[in-house]
């Protein structure tokens, strides 16, 4: 039987506190019909029965989403989606043709969670912070998201997804991912080198580790580094044309 010559499918994974809308502009610019944008359970969508919202549960969920595509994929993750992408690369290289993550710095053993993440990881304080966010007037919440660099359409989608279910998932996820509990993921970075990897380094991203941590983690994972000077955490929304072109070039290099 001849080999399948069709393009490798693409899976784009969002982060927190987001929905798949974060990848909307890039998806349009990729101009292809084989892009899958799964929604993390609890992030504007139901939670499966028995799903405990830990980092391991989200990895298992993502493995299932990729398996459902039916063939190896180009896996691209942002924020928590980036952490999950690295873990899939470490543990299930058979599912991937390539992988791309903007969260390599957060996989470094010296990474320290940002201030808000540490609040979410603290019992009591995390619940108070999430309730305050969920209780905001929607227009105020959208304005707040826009103030940190998220365009209005995506900000509105994120605010619409914020509910008690999402708050519970966020708190459980972060509390399952303290530095000590992420140590096994960091220790396995070398295993991700079994498939081609691309580390996106947005220089103004203050959430996922500094230059040194990103580059050192990428080296451990055998990943190339693409640097976006002056772009922040939501690089794919700030410069969707650059993001789409970068990903298209990456996919083309590893297809066939």
Percentage of residues in helical conformation = 40-55%
| Count of alpha and pi helical runs | 12
**CATH topology assignment of the domain at 10-111 and 181-254:** Rossmann fold
Assembly type of the chains comes to: single chain
Global structural class:
alpha/beta
Estimated radius of gyration: 17 Å
Order of helices and strands: EHEHEHEHHHHHHEHEHH
CATH architecture of the domain at 10-111 and 181-254: 3-Layer(aba) Sandwich
Shape, per Cα inertia axes? globular
Provide the CATH superfamily of the domain at 10-111 and 181-254.
Answer: Alpha/Beta hydrolase fold, catalytic domain
Mean pLDDT: 95
Distance between the termini: 16 Å
Strand order of the largest sheet: 2-1-3-4-5-6
User: What is the class of the domain at 10-111 and 181-254 in the CATH system?
Assistant: Alpha Beta
Largest sheet properties:
6 strands, parallel
How much beta, percentage-wise? 5-15%
Total strands: 6
| pLDDT < 50 runs, ≥5 residues | none
Concise synopsis of the structure shown:
This protein is α/β, with parallel strands linked by helices.
């Amino acid at each position: 039987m001849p080999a399948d010559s069709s393009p490798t499918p693409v899976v784009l994974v969002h982060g927190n506190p987001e929905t798949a809308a974060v990848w909307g502009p890039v998806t349009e610019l990729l101009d292809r019909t084989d892009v899958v944008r799964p929604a993390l359970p609890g992030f504007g969508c139901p939670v499966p029965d028995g799903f405990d919202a830990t980092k391991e549960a989200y990895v298992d969920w993502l493995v299932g989403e990729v398996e459902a595509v039916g063939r190896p994929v180009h896996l691209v993750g942002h924020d928590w989606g980036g952490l999950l992408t690295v873990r899939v690369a470490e543990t299930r290289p058979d599912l991937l043709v390539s992988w791309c993550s903007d969260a390599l710095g957060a996989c470094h053993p010296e990474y320290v969670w940002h201030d808000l993440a540490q609040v979410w990881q603290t019992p009591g304080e995390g619940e108070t912070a999430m309730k305050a966010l969920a209780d905001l007037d929607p227009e105020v919440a959208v304005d707040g998201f826009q103030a940190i660099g998220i365009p209005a359409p995506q900000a509105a989608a994120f605010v619409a997804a914020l509910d008690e279910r999402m708050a519970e998932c966020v708190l459980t996820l972060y509390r399952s991912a303290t530095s000590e509990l992420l140590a096994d993921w960091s220790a396995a970075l070398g295993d991700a080198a079994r498939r081609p990897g691309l580390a996106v380094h947005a220089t103004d991203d203050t959430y996922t580790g500094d230059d040194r941590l990103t580059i050192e983690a990428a080296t451990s994972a055998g990943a190339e580094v693409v640097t976006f000077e002056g772009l922040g955490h939501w690089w794919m929304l700030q410069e969707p044309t650059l993001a789409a072109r970068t990903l298209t070039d990456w996919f083309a290099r590893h297809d066939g």
